[in-house]
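B., you asked whether I could sanity-check this one before it goes into the benchmark set. Here's the sequence:
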Amino acid sequence: MPSIWNSFTYTLEFNAIISLVVASVFCKIWFGHSRGNDLKSVPKLYQPERILGLALFKELAKSAKAGTYLKDSRARFEENGYTYSLVLAGSTIIQTAEPENIQAVLGHLQSDYDSGTVRLNSAYPLLGKGIFTSDGEYWAHSRAMLKPCFAIRGFNLGNVETHVSRLFSIIPPDGQAVDLQPLFFRLSMDTSTVFLLGESTNSLISNQQIGSESEQFSRAFDYCSTEIMTRVRMGKFMFLHRNQKFSEACKICHRFADKYVKKALERYQKVRSENTGLVAPTLLDELMTQTQDPLELRCQLLHLLLAGRDTTASLLSSLIFVLSNGQTYRSK
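And here's what the prediction gave me:
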């Protein structure tokens, strides 16, 4: 099935590129707030109390634990309209799924909005400063620095084929039911690290050595991603939530990223001194042309890894779910 295979591999690469935009839209709309605009006309989500929003906090935590977070969010939109305000952990938040609103926030009204402090405080321990945790000049700086990196030439789609083949080998051939979403997250982690670092975490290899550096990183990154959303729900009360395991997981991720940053810096300096070019530059190699600050490189790398992993895995999960149910969705 060469045509299907080509579409699948190109979809993976394409989604690694657009994931930054998609995740940025989600974060900016969910946590963004307007400076000085009149928001009195925004409908309010019914809540038993709108001082702390504890009932909604418990409801969201329950949805996250049950794996129905997106389903329940969609139900609230369908019941309450596609733009409404809510109170969560003492903060007023405006949620919208209206395309015109999203276009305005990311377009001609972009300067009127920022992402507030919740997202920054939630993700900063893992990600540091970058496109997901910044506004204003540094956000523009991060965007300008990352944009040229996606013009890399010579990305080997054969690397993607290797990992997709591993995915297929794990799926039971006898029609037995299997939860594909965890496998898609492992697939996107493996392909994203190839794209970014030139080496894969190889998390889809069933006999991967337990306790290896790649295995530790994959587990730590998974844990950090989940914990960040817990911190987000805590809002301004985040300071009450102490989790030493999260701190240790962040350190594991930092050590992993720092190792590749160090190797890339050494490679970059060698290429410059010898006045030669890289045969197959990775995205990290391209970042070297923008900055040689190890901390900034680590932060930008982790931002890209978060985007390339989560959004791609979520899209593939939704795609297979829709196709398996024989459903057809048409835009209105």
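One thing to flag: Strands lie at 33-34, 83-88, 91-96, 113-114. Otherwise nothing jumped out at me.
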